[in-house]
Amino acid sequence: MMEYFVLSIGWILFYGTHTLLAALNIKRKFRAIMGRRYIWYRMLYSLWSTMLILAIFIYAATLSPVWLWQQGDLGTYLGFMLAAFGTILAVKSLKGIELFRFIGFRPHDDLKEKDSLTTNGLYHYIRHPLYAGLILIFFGFFLYIPNLASLVHLLALLVYLPVGIYFEEKKLIQLYGEEYSSYRRHVPPIFPKFTLWKK
């Protein structure tokens, strides 16, 4: 079971650095060190995250599977359906966001160039549609491949999300102040309410 402990450490490293490197005080320290080259920080951040998550999945694929139950047609169907819906949700959450700038392929100083707060589309119903999409993708993947590695992937995400949301929203309040605080009071984080928020 040592290999699954290593897999868990991989997720801790990924989520830990993902949150740490996105913090405003850490970004300011990197800008002080990097100077004008800080415009490449976002791209380096994206490359690091991509390489690390690929390494985690490649490592998981090398493990001898420990099946939690036998695969069946129902799990396969539900898994595909949830993963597909989650992918659609994740893609739609990026609507209105300049993707090349978000990834960092368009160099910029994200400490100076603040985007406007997005509260329309899916963000009108939930604050973190990308996270909601990831939950569905990981849960669908677990139903489709019900082994221990898939469970570790899912549990790592579910354990991280409250922590990740807390620190992300702390940063957003620093950036947008009362505008985000008001939005946060009226719009739920992951699961939509039936009442709609009006600005």
Automatic annotation (TrEMBL):
EC number(s) given by UniProt: 2.1.1.100, 2.1.1.334
Membrane-topology annotation of the record: Multi-pass membrane protein
Pfam families linked to this entry: PEMT
GO molecular function: protein C-terminal S-isoprenylcysteine carboxyl O-methyltransferase activity
Coiled coil: none
Single GO biological process annotation from the record: methylation
Keywords, sorted A to Z: Membrane, Methyltransferase, Transferase, Transmembrane, Transmembrane helix
Residue intervals passing through the bilayer: 6-26, 47-68, 74-91, 129-145, 151-167
Keyword check for Phosphoprotein: no
Keyword Transmembrane helix on entry: yes
Subcellular location: Endomembrane system
Broad class of where this protein is predominantly found: membrane
Name this polypeptide is given: Methyltransferase family protein
Organism: Negadavirga shengliensis
